[in-house]
Amino acid sequence: MALIYASLAGENAAAADLNLKLKVFLVPSLVTVPYETWPSGDAETAAGRWHCTSHRSEVLLDAAGVMQVARVPDAGVEATLCRDAPPMPDWQDFPRSDRPPPVYRMPSGAGFRLEDVEIDGPVTPIGGSLSIPAGPGPFPAVLFIGGSGTHDRHGIAGDIDIGSHEIMDDLAEHGFLGLRFDTRGAGSTRLGADALDRGLASDIADARACLAWLVARPEAAGQPLFLIGHSQGATIALALAGEPAAGPGVQGVVLMAAMGRDLDQILADQILVQGRKLGLSPQQIEAQQADAHTLAQLVRSGQAWDGEQVPHHLLAAFRTPTWYKAFLDYPATGLIRRVNCPILLCQGGADFQISPTRDAGPLLAAARDAGRDCRYLFFPDLDHLFKRSAGQSSLEEYQQPRPVDPVFLARLRAWLASRAGLKA
User: Fold this and answer.
1) Please, are residues 16 and 62 in contact by the beta-carbon 8 Å criterion?
2) Under CATH, which architecture does the 112-262+331-420 domain have?
3) Among the listed residues 209, 203, 208, the one whose alpha carbon sits nearest the alpha carbon of residue 121
4) What is the pLDDT of residues 354-368, one digit of tens each?
5) CB atoms within 10 A of CB 152
6) Where are the domains of the chain?
């Protein structure tokens, strides 16, 4: 924005007083959004004049139209132009941790083998790995469905090791055939032609294709089939298990940190936790929570998703309403009522993203109200990744190398084995 103001100032000496109406292309979200500014009433100072923007930010322009200060009050962010700047420090362009990025490696002496596979997806081929236990087979089979975001088949997302490979490796060691797959844009799976307007329905369709592929494998012939879904993947697992086509094939569903509320309520809780960690004021946190509520109302209303109907800063954050609306179309408490097979609901007490009382509680109540076989396992010290946490977890803690909790792995394995007729 400083460059835009400087360019306009070069064309007009009174640029500091202009009302601007521009369109700006935002690379991270691949969207063009309106951007407007206007002088902020009497907010003229010796340094220049303050302007408000339609993106909930404020800028201070001097008489020549050069941006002196830019701030986002609700986020507690401020940047100031230093005319007599100190020498540039000797730093790397991109600060790097001394710790190498996580890479999946098969466990030493593994009692299973991995076969890399490609599955015909509904939009783009899906890359995955099939973990095949030692022995003649066939084996009970497990499809693992990961959460939101971009991560590979092993659960590695940049500097974060989510740990799903530990779950699937452990099950393979104990006689379960397993399929793990890349999310769109990770590993060997491309984004696909629907990348700019993709929602939960696309992710469900990808998982459905993977499920059909696993069912058709000779190593799984005639054996029980299970779904494990983590976070958003739990919603997908519920959607698949409740479909008529799943029939008697799926004989158990494991839900790890599953959503039980509308997305705006979950976002409001996450904003509160992260805002406190960042030292934001109660007013700043409330403003961000109000944005989450406004966004949900706009999506529910079905209004046109453009600058005339939607605040510009929300357009910048959500390129289309497709992803958000999908969670309204697939409420987990409604989906769980349609599942006829046994359900294992797992929740960590240190999870700041999903709540034991406000998410797991309603899911459990809905399942039991519908007469479903649903068992609840609560792990007080585990976070959203089912890793041990010292107190309330945080996003920063996700980057620390920690294993998936062995007690959780053992109890998960025991529940699956009891329904598959295997020794835990």
Assistant:
1) yes
2) 3-Layer(aba) Sandwich (3.40)
3) 209
4) 999 999 999 999 999
5) 24
6) 2-80, 112-262+331-420, 263-317
- Per-residue pLDDT band for 5 (boundaries 50, 70, 90) equals confident
Amino acid letter at 65? Answer: G
Cα–Cα distances in Å, from 347 out to 233, 256, 363, 374, 401? 14, 6, 11, 13, 21
